[in-house]
Design brief:
The chain is α+β, with helices and mostly antiparallel strands. Helix content is about 35%, strand content about 20%. The protein has 8 helices and 7 strands, in the order αβββββααββααααα. The strands form 2 sheets. A 4-stranded antiparallel beta sheet has the order 1-2-4-3, with helices on one face. Helix 3 packs antiparallel against helix 4 and helix 4 packs antiparallel against helix 6. The radius of gyration is 19 Å and the shape is globular. The N terminus is likely disordered. This is Kinase.
């Protein structure tokens, strides 16, 4: 989709929030979302559609398809926590994206929530919005196993509303990751999700659950036929 360029920069600079409306060459008004970054970003096969990027005043602006919130802001909105069905939907979408892409670096800030017809969908987008070491594993290299670990941390957040670690810096987090034990996972978490977290957050990458097997978990499998939009 081509967007008229002559007034885009001014619209971006004047935008009161991240909702942007632009006119295409065919005269149709289309809604977009705007993300402002201090540095560069890397889109590793994102499923969130990215249309254009602009630089101005030492900031990088990224124009994307509309989204409701990041997962981080959604969790702040839902102070009473997410329903089991919502958790299953979000982690299903994340795992599906990981299955079909080379997406390794992600956290709550670069999982984007889209709402449609009273349903939600999660999409992986811009990978360098933050450097959250809590989502790194002990592998030392980027791989599918690393992504499974990160998704396990996401699932932990979805189920508890907080991080698996109570740390102040990268060094403390690295030590906590190395000593992470399944007993650190609260028994109050839904039994199926708890088993998934145990499988996904194994210290040994070779022992972590495979994405295909995780998607066959009964709680997630029921979501697969409905993830077309």
């Amino acid at each position: 989709m081509q967007i008229l360029d002559y007034n885009i920069l001014q619209i971006i600079l004047d935008a009161p929030d991240r909702q942007i409306y632009l006119v295409t060459e065919k005269g149709k008004t289309v809604q977009y979302c705007l993300i402002a970054l201090e540095g560069s970003f890397e889109a590793q096969s994102p499923t969130l559609k990215i249309y254009k990027t602009f630089k101005s005043l030492n900031k990088l602006y990224v124009l994307t398809e509309p989204f409701h919130a990041t997962l981080q802001s959604l969790l702040k909105e839902q102070q009473n926590g997410l329903e089991i069905g919502q958790i299953a939907t979000i982690i299903t979408d994340v795992l599906m994206d990981l299955l079909h892409s080379q997406f390794f670096a992600f956290s709550l800030q670069n999982i984007f929530i889209i709402k449609q017809n009273n349903q939600i969908k999660a999409k992986l987008g811009i990978s360098n919005l933050s450097c959250d070491w809590a989502f790194s594993s002990v592998d030392g290299v980027h791989s599918k196993a690393t992504s499974v670990w990160s998704a396990g941390v996401v699932l932990f957040y979805l189920c508890t509303g907080h991080s698996p670690y109570n740390c102040r810096n990268k060094t403390e987090i690295e030590e906590k990751i190395k000593s992470f034990d399944i007993t650190d996972i609260p028994n109050s978490i839904n039994k199926i999700f708890r088993q998934m977290i145990i499988s996904m957050m194994q210290i040994n990458g070779g022992r972590r659950g495979q994405i295909e097997d995780l998607l066959n978990t009964p709680q997630l499998k029921m979501n697969l036929p409905n993830r077309d939009w």
